[in-house]
Amino acid sequence: MNEYDSNRIYDLTATIGFEKTDTKSEANCFVLNTCHIRKKAAEKVYDEIGRIKKSFKNLKKPLIIITGCVAQAESEEMINRESYIDMVIGPQSYHKITDLILNHERKKKKIVETEFDVVKKFDELGKIDNSQNKISSYLTIQEGCDKFCHFCVVPYTRGPEYSRPFTQIINEAERLVKNGTKEIILLGQNVNAYNSFESKKNYKLSSLIKRINEIENLKRIRFTTSHPKDMTEDLIECYKNCNKLMPSLHLPIQSASNKILKSMNRKHDKEYYISIIKKLKDINENIKISSDFIVGYPGESESDFIQTMDLIKKIGFINSYSFIFSPRPGTPASEEKLNSLKVSEERLKKMQNLLENLQYKNNKNYQNKTCKVLVENKLNNQAKYFGRTESAMSVFFNSNGCTIGEIIDVEINSFNKKNLSGFHKLNKEQAA
């Protein structure tokens, strides 16, 4: 989500003459797009501001803009705490950034803009081309969340669920493909809650996938991040009927203890989650599942933890995230008594070791096998390329004859915990 927002912020600022620079000292404006899900997110922002201040100690002060969820949560407090900050703009207000910059330049006054104006935001973004021009591009279709999990700040920083109009999304998808995109990743805080009523028709995520699946020259479709309660039958069926939808799914469960799931207000239990995976496996036994896990949630016992570990083994998750619970101000869970940090750290280590072993086993299964890889870019080495498998595994490979954006056969000859390596099968002799 943040990558999509950052790219669109650049699209907007480019209309008033801003250009990206990789040289920090050349910048006359810094836009820090923030995420409040990270631990000590606000403190990380102030740390970054400190580094910028140090870099520009003997130079003209640049314009400092904080956007995203930390900006929404902290609001005026950010400017009151750090005078070096010039503007604070919430995630539903960044479409106003050009006007706010011009206004700041005229009046030289600090600005705080944190209105929830999501409808107008996407109307304005729809007028400006998405300039990502990447082989794999993100496309936001939905924002906000109505689930109110007790540990999560999203409903408070992004607001209630809002689904972009169906036609608006299809138009943006077609423009992306026209500009060279071969893979589209549909985004949302709760992406599978997408629901738009337009021209007397009700469109769901499955409707979007089916329509995008028809776009000529597009090769792959993915979506993230999902909630188990919104994995409906029509969406599951897309894995059978839409050939461009990749056999991989990120489906956070957080815990496999029904007691903890209830405490989290997740609105589903372990058995329901397992039933979703079974339905997907019945369609394609090779589908890969990734997830999120919170260790040390308030009230988590050793038994609760073991249940989660057992589920990880049962499902065989890959590419998953695990972290120790940390309270977010304003959320119900922040008022609960924290577990022992020492115990949580021990549990996290055990879980991460298990996840790493499963990842290693998954990668090992690719050894001496051929997989379909979407070529995303060429590395500095003349014959070295990077791409991803159908399950989104990173692959580095040698080739003397492939094209960026095509899908090729790559034979895997080595691996590690993070990625795969191999050669373009048609060029084995040259690569050797």
Give short descriptive properties of this protein.
single chain; 432 residues; alpha/beta; Rossmann fold; pyruvate-formate lyase- activating enzyme; OB fold (Dihydrolipoamide Acetyltransferase, E2P); four-stranded parallel beta sheet; disordered C terminus
Number of domains: 3
Kindly report the average pLDDT value: 92
If strands are numbered along the chain, what order do they take across the biggest sheet? 16-17-18-20-19
Unreliable sequence segments: 428-432
Distance between the termini: 40 Å
CATH topology type of the largest domain = pyruvate-formate lyase- activating enzyme
Strand content: 15-25%
- What is the CATH H-level superfamily of the largest domain? tm_1862 like domain
Proportion of residues in helical segments: 25-40%
CATH class of the largest domain: Alpha Beta
Main beta sheet? 5 strands, mixed, barrel
Contiguous helical run count: 15
SSE order and pairing:
Elements: H1 2-14, E1 29-34, H2 41-55, E2 63-68, H3 69-74, H4 76-81, E3 87-89, H5 97-107, E4 111-113, H6 118-125, E5 136-140, E6 142-143, H7 154-157, E7 162-163, H8 166-178, E8 183-187, E9 195-198, E10 201-204, H9 205-212, E11 220-224, H10 233-241, E12 248-250, H11 258-264, H12 270-283, E13 288-290, E14 292-295, H13 302-315, E15 321-324, H14 341-364, E16 370-378, E17 384-388, E18 394-398, E19 407-415, E20 420-424, H15 428-431
Parallel strand pairs: 1-2, 2-3, 3-4, 5-8, 8-11, 12-13, 14-15, 18-20
Antiparallel strand pairs: 6-7, 9-10, 16-17, 16-19, 17-18, 19-20
Helix pairs in contact: 9-10, 10-12, 13-14
